[in-house]
C-alpha cells in the first residue's frame, strides 16, 4: 500500500471488513478510522465502524458512525446493500449493521 494512493481508503476498509469477520473488532475500528481520515465521505468506512463499534457495545460511537453513514448515503438499507452484492457472506458485518440499528 502506498501512502500517496488516492484510493488507500478502500484498502483500509477491506482490512476492516476482514478484521470484523475475524472478530478482531478493535483492529477493524483502527482500519475504519484510517479510511475515514483518508476519505470522510466514503460510506464503507462508516459501515465498518458502525458494525465494529456495535459488536463491542460502544453505543455512542455506534450511533455516531451510523448517523455519518446515513449522512453520506441517505438511501442506505441493509437489504439494499446485500442485494447489490455488498458482502452478503459477511455474517458478522451484517449482524453488526443490524445491531447498529441501520434501516433494514
List the helices and strands and how they pair.
Layout: H1 8-21, H2 25-38, H3 43-55, H4 59-72, H5 78-83, H6 91-99
In summary, what is this structure?
The chain has 104 residues and is mainly α.
Describe the protein in words.
There is one protein chain. This protein has helices spanning 8-21, 25-38, 43-55, 59-72, 78-83, 91-99. The protein is mostly helical and 104 residues long. Helix 1 runs parallel beside helix 3 (43-55) and helix 2 (25-38) runs antiparallel to helix 3. The longest helix has 14 residues, at 8-21.
Shape: globular
**Helix count?**
6
On the 0-100 scale, what is the average pLDDT? 93
Topology as a string of helices (H) and strands (E): HHHHHH
Q: Strand pairing plus helix content: what structural class?
A: mainly alpha
Instruction: Tell me the fraction of residues in β-strands, as a range.
Output: under 5%
Quaternary structure type: single chain
Residue runs with pLDDT of under 50 for 5 or more positions: none
Residue share in helix: 55-70%
Reported for the largest beta sheet, the result is:
none
- Rg is 12 Å
Query: End-to-end span in angstroms?
Result: 34 Å
Give the number of DSSP strands: 0
